Amino acid sequence: MGLPNIRERCLVWTMPWLAPLIATLISWVLSPVLPKANYAMIYLAGVLLTAVTTRVKPALVCAVLSFLTYNFFHTEPHFTFFMVHQEDILTVTLLIFVAVVTGHLAARLREKVIALEDSSRWNQQQMLLAQELSACVNGPSVMKTLAQHLTQCFSFTTQTYYPGSDELTSLTAKYGLSSPHIASAATEVIFKEDKARVLVAFNSHRGCMGLLKIESDAPLTSLQRSGLDGFIGLARLAWSRVVLSETLQQEITVKEREQLRSALLSSISHDLRTPLATMIGSVSSLIELRDALDQAQQDELLQNTLSEAQRLNRYIQKLLDMTRLGHGELTLDRDWVGLDDILSVVIKRSKPLLQDVTVDISLPPEMPLLYVHPALIEQALFNVLENAIRFAPPGTAITVSAFTADTQLHIDIHDEGPGIPPESWDSIFDMFFTMAHGDQYPAGTGLGLAICQGILGAHGGSASVFESDSTSGTTLRLSLPLPETQLSSKSDDDDTYTGD
Asked: Where do the TM regions start and end (predicted)?
């Protein structure tokens, strides 16, 4: 910050005295070969050296001392300050004049160079602080970054306090940094200076969210105060950005929660009431018209009741799965399993839903084992297959294929349905997002694909729309990572895997 260090202090105090002494010694050494008239140039060189290594005042002192030394040792009568020759008086006068002018100019030039270096160093420190503050995502990180730079640049002692600290409460109350003062400066950074102590309060609409106490060994200089103002100005900008980001995030969370609540109520009111109404109608018909119905009609009503009850059960299970995913209660009980084993269970579960749709499975002859939670991956595949069955036209086939690429296993599920518009490719994995295509393709619950994405994400994988259009149908791609190291260790020890 331009403050003189130890080396500069030593030069300031030693050069004005040392330069004339060295010049005198050099002149004595060179006196046999150097004309006496050139001695003044040696002293002038000492003054210039002092000027370029120190500042203006030391250079002027050196010029005066050089004049006195030259007069004392090299003008007649020697070892006195009297001069009897006019040429000596002229020489000494020119010496002092040239020494003062050149010393002053050289010292001023050096001071400007030092000021430019200090300014450049200060700008670099500010840029470094601004870069680190731009990466801060919360209040504590802003305070920590500011404290580190204040300690590095000024050697200040810093201490931070957070909400809940007794010291925070007492200091903010003592120095007027607490409510109601904060209310008028919400989301601001306020600092108070008290002798060698500076208190920086980081405020938001919720009150004082942190306090930074800065202490110095001595009262702050104007240079330190200017640097501190600049650092706190940068911290104020970073703090405003953090508070604004948190406020926006809260508003987004509230909006999403409200949208989710509305979608949940809408979905429950439709997807629960529809199967319940069908079940109630079938059971009421059996109770009231049992004698008027033949066996085939009674079986049909019972089958409708069972089908709607199974549909209701699947919907409730999906709601439970989404609850577990949303609350982070999903635990992965991993095991080694083959993809063909999982698909066989999924196909078996899907048979009641197939009707006029078939499922073709195409797998490579040698598929690597998966180290996953078998039941969860089975549920994810079933959700995607159930979605494909819903939109597959009667008499068509759904194709399930798989292949490996790099360190991932990709599972493609293709149907010949009406396709998905490109703008909805990402939205179909959101909760309660549904797409209906008239009475031919009724909308689902909007939970199946969201659950699938959550399950795959927990395994380090993902689900996405690989391709889709209205003529060739839709292909959803499910990707799972292949644990190569665990695969190799499993293949070396066959006794640890039974294949069941």
From this structure: 12-30, 42-69, 89-107
- Return the exposure string of 302-326: e unless at least 16 CB atoms fall within 10 Å of the residue's CB, then b: eebbebbeebbebbeebbebbeebe
Judge whether residue 494 has pLDDT over 60.
no
In sequence order, what are the residues at sequence separation of 6 or more whose Cβ sits closer than 8 angstroms to the Cβ of residue 66? 19, 20, 23, 43, 44, 46, 47, 95, 96, 99
Answer yes or no: is pLDDT of 410 > 90.
yes
Q: How far is CA 232 from CA 143, 146, 161, in A?
A: 10, 8, 17
Predicted pLDDT of residue 399: 93
Record the tokens describing residue 97, joined without a space. 């004049």
What 8-state DSSP symbol labels residue 205?
A: T
> What's the mean per-residue pLDDT of the chain?
77
In sequence order, the 6+-apart residues with CB closer than 8 A to the CB of 160 are 140, 143, 144, 147, 210, 211, 212, 213
Give the largest Cα separation in the chain, rounded: 152
> Token pair for residue 443?
């909308």
Q: Phi, psi at residue 446, to the nearest 5°?
A: 80, 20
Residue 415 to residue 387: CA distance in whole angstroms: 9
Output 382 or 186, whichever has higher pLDDT: 382
CA angle 116, 122, 125 (to 5 degrees): 145
Sequence-distant (6+) residues with CB within 8 A of 312 are: 272, 275, 276, 279
For the record, the structure tokens of 63 come out as 């010029």
Among 333, 126, 339, 334, smallest CA distance to 235 is for 126
pLDDT at 498 over 50: no
CA distance 378 to 342: 6
In a 13 Å sphere around the CA of 445, the CA atoms on its Cβ side amount to 27
CA angle 25, 28, 34 (to 5 degrees): 125
